[in-house]
Fold each of these.
Amino acid sequence: MARISGVDLPKNKRGVIGLTYIYGIGLTTAQNILTAGKISWDKKVNEWNDDDIASIREAISQMTVEGELRSQTQMNIKRMMDIGCYRGLRHRKGLPLRGQRTKNNSRTRKGKRKTVAGKKKAVK
């Protein structure tokens, strides 16, 4: 089993898919890493030899991935909240950031519905 950047890669998946389990590495980056290391994309993770794993580790060590990238993202969000910019305020309120409507949708961001009691009718 290959362990790269603190992540155990699934051994029965193709190498290009296995690398995407590392936070900060998508499909295109995984393809570029394997191409630079002269490793076939179709080669499964358990078929990699020590030289292949070493070349992949070398390529990934020059990138910002996993914990460092997560903390960098959180610091960016915290900075936006501290300076009070629009995106920071939306983060603070737990609302969508990128111009989506909130009247009907955005349940993922807003959470479960909170029912508000209706108005009482006036007595005549």
Amino acid sequence: MISETFLAFYSSVGGGAIGNMLFQWEQAGVFSYVLPFLLIFALVFGILSKINIFGGKNGNEGKGINIVIALAVGFLALQFNFVSIFFSEIFPRLGIGLSIVLVVLILLGLFINPKNKGWMGGMTAIALLIAVVVVFSSLDSYSWYTGSGIGYWLGYNWATIVGVLVFLGLLITIIVGSKSQKEDKSVLAKMLEG
């Protein structure tokens, strides 16, 4: 009896009632059109409201213009499938990247003091590296990035780019370290001590 009740609610896609609901939302275009439109509308409206180009002193005078512009940008962005495809590529990867950062933070939290600025700088570097990987792997689905475009160039020259960045990082560390010769500690030792 329990198995009959369970199977009655279990969908063919898997996941039960929530799986059915998400599948229906996908078929209705919620993930391809509604959510990308809301995200673009909210970002454009928020930016226009914050910079207050069309408003007076309190910012409410240009609210109608901001809404019209945000609506136009939101609808124009969805005219072709570029935004929907990009959002379907980047946000699952973003979720994976955030999960990796969270796991690293939890594991490091077991062994280090969170007030130590050196480790937090290292975590920032790891998070930025994950962000770059998420963006470039999401852009990999577009033809202008792969093939003979920038993706090919980056794939061919990645070692040179990393070498130049490491060299610039060492150069900046040496310059910053030479300016602060008041203490005998190195920049790395200062960062690790916090």
Amino acid sequence: MNISKKTALVTGASRGIGRAIAERLAQDGFYVVINYAGNATHAQAAIDHIIEQGGQASAIQADVANEHDVSRLFQEAKAINGQLDVVVHSAGIMPMAKITPEALPDFDKVIHTNLRGTFLILAHAAETVPDGGRIITLSTSVIAKSFPAYGPYIASKAGVEGLVHVLANELRGRNITVNAVAPGPTGTDLFYNGKTDEQVSAIAKLAPLERIGTPEEIANVVAMLAGPDGAWVNSQVIRVNGGFA
């Protein structure tokens, strides 16, 4: 795929893994549309960095779980260059909640954002991305661990992985790949928040490589799927985790 003058939409791209993905795709020559939920300052900082590095980017605010916002997001993103070639869905939340009656509001919140949001993004991507395009979403490697208090998050991401396989089949004949990337523990503010040095060290040792991954390492795999080297990878969940799971 010749990526010159091609446009990529990255949701949740103002911080963390999403921002690293946006920056990497910009380096690869994509015009990047940065979606953010509410922090315009962080989104602008990401744009400024991309432009400083010689790339092109702009931002569009939208709640990925709101059908009206998502419809507007895709219309505005496509209008920038007349075509939307790659969609990367990175937006999501990860509150900790055990499986108890009292945690139902947390469960509903995670499912609303992570699973409903993914359904909406994938649905609009399927209608918008042209033949030969790429659709990539983020899952998680913690699915394999079943840690306490991860129930709602794991349930939402298991649903995401199911949607990826189904959509790949629904797009048969259009030469559009649909894949998921499932990071392991990755060094973002979301990961470090609330953890002691001892906890971070213990988590790092769970993988045979005995370290925390970087957002850039996740972005590298997404970039592969978005570019010409990913043309024969379809309906897959790629676990990028150093052997964590």
